Amino acid sequence: MNFDELFGHLGQHTVDGLAKGAIYALVALGYTLVYGVLKLINFAHSEVFMVGTFAVMGTWALLGATDGPSFGMVVLLVVAGLAAGALASGATAVAVERIAYRRLRRMNAPPLIFLITAIGLSLVLAEAFGLWQGRIVKGMPDVVRHDIWLTIGNTEISNRQIITVVAALGMMFALDRFINGTRYGRGVRAVAQNPDTAALMGVNQDRVIMLIFLLGGLLAGAAALLWSIRYGITKFDIGFLVGLKAFTAAVLGGIGNLRGALVGGLLLGVVEVYSATLTSSSWEDVAAFVVLVVVLLFRPTGLLGESLGRARA
Amino acid sequence: MTDILRKVNDSRQRVTGGIGERWRALPRWQRWLGFAAFVAFLYYLPYLGIPGLVWLRTDYISNGTNWASVLFICAVYVLVAIGLNVVVGLAGLLDLGYVGFFAVGAYSVALFGSANSPVVHMIQAQFGMPKGWAVAWAVCIPLALVLTMISGVILGWPTLRLRGDYLAIVTLGFGEIIRIVARNSEWAGAAQGINGIPGPQGAPSPDNHIFGLLDAKPWYWLALTVVLVMVFAVRRLENSRVGRAWLAIREDEDAAAVMGVHGFKFKLWAFAIGAALGGISGLLFASRQGFVEPLGFNAQLSILFVAMVVVGGSGNMAGVALGAFLLAYLPERFRDFNNVRVLVFGLALVLVMLLRPQGLIPSRRRARELKDRAEEAPVNVA
């Protein structure tokens, strides 16, 4: 147990953890949105993220990205990457709903069936990219050069970390406003609260469900861009682990709760970094799951409770 | 596209529909006879040479795999599916970490039965046992059973109070924890695993003429026998007080509690029994393979297990056995298409579930539930 290292550089590890957790949180939102409305785990969401990373990679390659480009180029690459990632992920998410879920929804099938079709579809997506792009780790150019922007005490905060956290918080805020402040958001909340009553009130359920898949996909695409900036790699099966972590984060914060996804994601990132510092990085996944079990023991519906429709109606 | 699929499904129904009813309408002795013939056929399978059926064998294709080995794996997976069916199909608890129990079973025979395991070395040093001593295989079986049941209770005790999807993620985490602990712990052989795992004839050696490395047929017969015994046992359990309690919990836990069914207790039993079955299959798997490594027990395998149960028809033993057989056998048979087989497998999962959400051979009760749900389908989805 390396306590000296952890407490000696507590600020540094916290910042690292928050930056890591911000990406989890963005992906977790996709799980939480779908769960909040449909009460089912969208297992294929992990591959939605994976498709996003490949879209970012492809766009960067198309625009001729190189390591450490000029400032104007960085802005162009980031914006283009965001557009491509969000578009690809959003389209994939909507396609997943159309192919794997819509027919089953009409049949009112039990959740387990949705789980299996989603698993099948995520296998298809991952394997299709494995065949197309090869089953190897794909590197990306170092678009945003690592640079220390802020030093507080012995804590160094890099530009990537600031971008990641700020972008994640910004998108989270925008989503929160969208769900709580717009007409479409009211529809989403209505369906989450009670689908039948919402239908009687004239809410088009199918459109709302498509909307939440689209939103989840867009956020996963944004997460894919941040991931590409931060780690600069992707692989056909990258989705599984990220998806697992993000789902854990969603459950940790209270699945179905948007703010819960943020809290869960950030907390999970911090827990992972702390435990990796204390022991070794090979134990960080164990720590993440142990924290999950302990939290669920005392708060069986997650830290903030599950509520897309109920609490803030 | 779904319209075409529906048409295909309808024409299939005209051909195969009603087989179940006709089978159940047969007199008892004829059903027994049919069952006995089927069992005999299963035991004959490794020699399969009936003209017209030979193409089923996996060693008839280029770079095919040993047919009896594949059969053995199928039998092990069928056992896994029967165990998981107790948890998912009968008690209605979604367990995404079943591979954890499979791993505990495999590791208990590895840690105690192999002369190369750190645990055995520790025991040797502690009690002055001669070098090369290890716990006998026959003793490892009850040991594995006890250890897996304990791990089932350890997992179930804190988590069974959670409902539905929370349980799913916690069990998924449990499976991963077991694998990571095995990978990171020196006493469990760390990343390279443990070799020299014994079989029914003791530690692997060229003198093992029956349960050796080369010939997988006896292994298949052993596994098949275990499967048959377990099918019988679980069938008895299903029709007992415990089985009825599981059913009641699955349908409506609150209503069951009102009727005096102690939900937590029976759920824990389902976990422990399911875990024990997973443990036995893990033990068989490890004994045949002769070594274990943590990499083999990943979360994807867990998900494959759940897919076996659901595709086959959760709640029905014949169904889950068929599902397990198909999901283990088809990828082996189609090794020619090595690159696309997982892709096709995923597609098949989606298609089967869209066309037959109740599974290939559904449990009659489950199929009825599903129909009820469809009739009370939500409004506004025309």
Molecular structure report:
The complex is a heterodimer of chains A (313) and B (382). In chain A, 54% of the residues are buried. By secondary structure, chain A is mainly alpha-helical. The termini of chain A are far apart. In chain A, helix 2 (10-38) packs antiparallel against helix 11, helix 7 packs across helix 9 and helix 10 crosses helix 11. In chain A, the strands form 2 sheets. Chain A has a two-stranded antiparallel sheet. In chain A, a hairpin with a 2-residue loop joins strand 2 and strand 3. Chain A has one domain (3-298): ABC transporter involved in vitamin B12 uptake, BtuC. The model of chain A has no long low-confidence stretch (mean pLDDT 87). Chain A is built from 12 helices and 4 strands. The radius of gyration of chain A is 19 Å and the shape is globular. With 382 residues, chain B is mostly helical. Chain B has a domain at 67-311. Chain B is 67% helix and 1% strand. Chain B has 16 helices and 2 strands. Chain B has helices at residues 2-16, 19-25, 28-44, 67-90, 99-113, 118-127, 137-159, 164-184, 217-238, 241-251, 253-258, 263-289, 299-312, 317-333, 341-355, 364-375, and strands spanning 194-195, 291-292. Chain B has a two-stranded antiparallel ribbon. Chain B is globular. Chain B starts with a helix and ends in a 7-residue tail after the last helix. The interface between A and B is large, with 55 and 54 residues.
